[in-house]
């Protein structure tokens, strides 16, 4: 398997200006005629052979400038078509290929999902449709004629604007789509099928009248309205916030059931996993609504950050993904609650990216080498990539940042750009040298910042000493060199012990931000009348781990009085983490007594709930949610016992439920929806539901019998999927007949709703009990389960392997064995999904030695299996290295 290196990048020897595609859809024998207008690239090697990428294609015919190619002129292998002596002037290649969409289980290229023809071309799927220069820096103008059976495919969609449609014989019809914007092949898409439609219009700030539509399985149109509205809100937001207007007459979104990822930003024709489109109060939770809004926005925002400015090569993936995640996070923060959303972002980062950065799959945000690019659509590229953009805004200030974005879009529009181009726009706008800042893109691993504070009463100064350290991560980017200090924005403030902020000054702090640029630095505040409590990394101003020896009382002060909502939440998390780590390390039994630290936490939470829960229920629900088991494991770092962590967390939940019980029950009552109240997915309503359900969860932890009764009543009375699923989740943690009956009833009620059954699969797969393994094996035989559908695999198997730490890490190794078995069974069908599942082993080196040996054995079994895909072999190899 070859390694692709950033250092080896060179421009393509040939360019393609225009692509005319004629696609005649057929379930098993789809014919594709590609007419490519090529020319030698002045920046390429003169006279070089033309090597077009291909994958699982059958070549039917080829002509050069209208003539058949002579003997020996071309060579065809399974992965390439080579023209040995291409003309050194513009020329036209016409290539006819055949593909079998029904046999395409990899879901890359042209495939069928429930009978609907659709495509997925990022990163390298276009080569599965026709022979092509399938690299993002080759950009062409596409015209696509799609022909299909009128009955089976009444809807025919392509990129750009519809220019023509008509009949093509007795049973067939066609549509021609033209996209005037040059684009890389990975943004190509087509859809053909029987689909329902909801639509509306949007007039851009430039006066363009755009037809927007969402296509879904017929009969599910009523579940597409929220997504349609999210498209219009995204369009308006991007105009308001970044001055970016839409640039075609049509914007189509199509939902399909079989999709490897969340969605895809194809130009003018976004294709979505239906999980991120379809929503009704009866089938979707508040989390689903929030995800749909965020992902619709994300894909729409790619139209500028990704499509108008694309990536020169796949090493620059963060250029579009990190930036677009930042943009969608800002959108959600504006549409919902900014502090609540920030907490959600950080929880995701800590749960997914920090472990990745600490494990064998760690890589820089801009990797230097890859074997399989599909394995680099990671939390590091996406989430840490977004944090880098956010730090840039913190460092430069919002106005300069916006100016830098405008400059980036203006200078790179229509180009395939690099991270250097991006940073150059901000450097030019701000007049700042961003060379040291750019190390964030190159160095893997999560930095730690240790901070200590000293108050000098005589001098009335307060000094904060910072020391940053970076883990040494062996990547190609590091090449054995020691990591160099990063530029770390520290948003901070000083809080008086009795509340209120301390107005102390330091010349190093501008607009509440201190910039740590070297390994060690001290910051002195003058005129400080009494010892303050420092509030550091407000709003999580940098993706770092903070070691800050605050006392318990100081943390309680921050929880009660910090002006920064994120740090109030963080204070509660840190207090809880201290209890959890101590108990887990001590191997403490499952009892609600958690010592003085736990008691202090519950007292503080009681005051917080009394004073504030009703004012901001969404925030309160987050304050009540303890750090997850995986986060505790990361904090412990080595020789981890997942069972001890579960017991520690459960015992603290029991204590919170017991000590706060009456308050939690009163809150549940106070937040109850009046009967007949109409459903709204807005953030305030969702927040009320979240707090009610967090209360139910804790009350049940302390008193399973009383909680079960409450949960059963909620299950019966619920008018939303959020409340129904929350009740079922609570019940799922209490072994017994009530649980089994409730699960059975739910499974029966939604047997025709695959997306709801996914939630049911996931709940069961996450039960932290020894019986779960057999339950998961049993559910793999459920009629609704299929290894062929990525959503089903993710909900059942990945929920078990990635989100059920005690059972994945079963001491007998059976959790590892099940995961390895499914990875191998899946690899022949869908290597991308198999490889992603295998990343569950990311933490294998952290667990205690008995488990570690068993995990390693399972991983080796995968690595040694014959005929592995490059995707799985890459993850297995790196995990074991
Ligand atoms: N840009 C899209 C990435 C994507 C993808 C990558 C590999 C294989 C299948 C895929 N489907 C979508 C999604 C996004 O981040 O916007
Ligand atoms: Zn994206």
TrEMBL record:
It is an enzyme of class 3 (hydrolase). Coiled coil: none annotated. GO terms for molecular function: alanyl aminopeptidase activity; metallopeptidase activity; zinc ion binding. The keyword Protease applies. Its EC number is 3.4.11.2. It comes from the Bacteria. InterPro entries: Aminopeptidase_N-like_N (IPR045357), Aminopeptidase_N-like_N_sf (IPR042097), PepN_Ig-like_sf (IPR038438), Peptidase_M1 (IPR001930), Peptidase_M1_dom (IPR014782), Peptidase_M1_pepN (IPR012779), Peptidase_M1_pepN_C (IPR024601), Peptidase_M1_pepN_C_sf (IPR037144). Residues 226-440 form the Peptidase M1 membrane alanine aminopeptidase domain. It catalyses: Release of an N-terminal amino acid, Xaa-|-Yaa- from a peptide, amide or arylamide. Xaa is preferably Ala, but may be most amino acids including Pro (slow action). When a terminal hydrophobic residue is followed by a prolyl residue, the two may be released as an intact Xaa-Pro dipeptide. Keywords: Aminopeptidase, Hydrolase, Metal-binding, Metalloprotease, Protease, Zinc. Residues 445-548 form the Peptidase M1 alanyl aminopeptidase Ig-like fold domain. PANTHER family: PUROMYCIN-SENSITIVE AMINOPEPTIDASE. Belongs to the peptidase M1 family. NCBIfam families: pepN_proteo. This is Aminopeptidase N. It comes from Methylobacterium frigidaeris.
